[in-house]
Structure formats: C-alpha cells, structure tokens
Amino acid sequence: NYHRFNRQILKSLQNDIILIVYFNMNTKPKISVIVPAYKTARYIPACLDSILSQTLTDIEIICINDGSPDNALEIFNEYAKRDSRITVINQENQGICLARNNAIAAARADYIFPLDSDDVIAPNCLEILYNIITTTDYSVVCPLGILFDQTPGTLWRLPPVNKFNMYGGRN
Fold first, then answer.
1. What does the alpha-carbon distance between residue 88 and residue 139 come to, in Å, rounded to a whole number?
2. How far is CA 26 from CA 6, 88, 143, 144, in A?
C-alpha cells in the first residue's frame, strides 16, 4: 500500500519538491490503548473520539469486539478505515479478561492503557500519564476517574486509588 500511495503522489507532483512522511509499522508507539467491547456500541463513538483527540498522538488503539451482538464491530471497522493507528480484533465472546489479554498480546507499546468502551478520557490524559510513568520510578499510574450519573450535571468522584481498592477487592 505504501508503494502504491507513494507512486500516486509522485505522479501527481512530478516537478515539485516532495517530502513524504508515512507511518512506519516498525516504529513502536508510546502507548497501546486497548478497548474491548461487548454490548456497548452506543458508547463506542464517544470513546474512540476521546482517544483520537489525545494530545499524545504516538499511540496505537486496539479495539476488540468480544462477540458483541450489536454493531460494535462495524463501528470499530469504520473508525479503523479513518485512522491507521486503529487495529480491530474480532473474536467469539470469551469475556472481558480474555479480550483484554488478546489485545495485550497484540500490543506493540511498552505501556498499556486499558479503556472500557463505555468510558471517555480527557484530551491530555495519555500525555500526562506517559510523562509520569517515564519520569518517575512508578510501575503503574492510574488517572482520576469521575462518574457521570444518569441525572444531567451530577458527578461522582471516585475514591483515591491505593493497593487495597485499585481493582475493587479488599485485602
């Protein structure tokens, strides 16, 4: 595809000075964002739009359709056509854990950001997290979450994360 695209540019701009910049699949992105989906199609556009609007652009987005009966796969594929950073994995329903594990196996970045397909992130979220993880000795960084209630304008701030409540379990 690159060579065909390259020839088309060269034919249309034969006498001009040309600088061609292309995405090299051998270049490792800074963060792999993994987005599994099962019955969340109505939220996926907002989720992907929030990822695509990130100030940190050197990312890959791995979308996993976990056998969802809605149109999640079609939405993922449409977004993948528009942005080369998006990879779509389609699998039979195996559950969220296996969906995430399959995405992690496909990820090329050193850092993984799991994002549920019914969530959105602030435009500078990945840049801030990347700066923290690469300039400190932390092994894990988690963004602050805010829950939106069904009542417009109602926000619920999540409690600070610590080793006891990070995954909802108690030790």
1. 28
2. 18, 18, 29, 33
For residues 86 and 10, give the distance between their C-alpha atoms in angstroms, rounded to a whole number. Answer: 27
Q: Which tokens in the block code for residue 169? A: 């379990």
**pTM for the whole structure:** 0.74
Interatomic CA distance for residues 38 and 46, integer angstroms = 15
Are 103 and 36 in contact by the 8 Å Cβ rule? The answer is yes
Contact 64, 100 (CB under 8 A): yes
pLDDT in tens, 74-114: 999 999 999 999 999 999 999 999 999 999 999 999 999 99
Helices (H), the chain: 2-12, 44-52, 72-82, 96-106, 125-135
Q: Are 64 and 34 in contact (CB under 8 A)?
A: yes
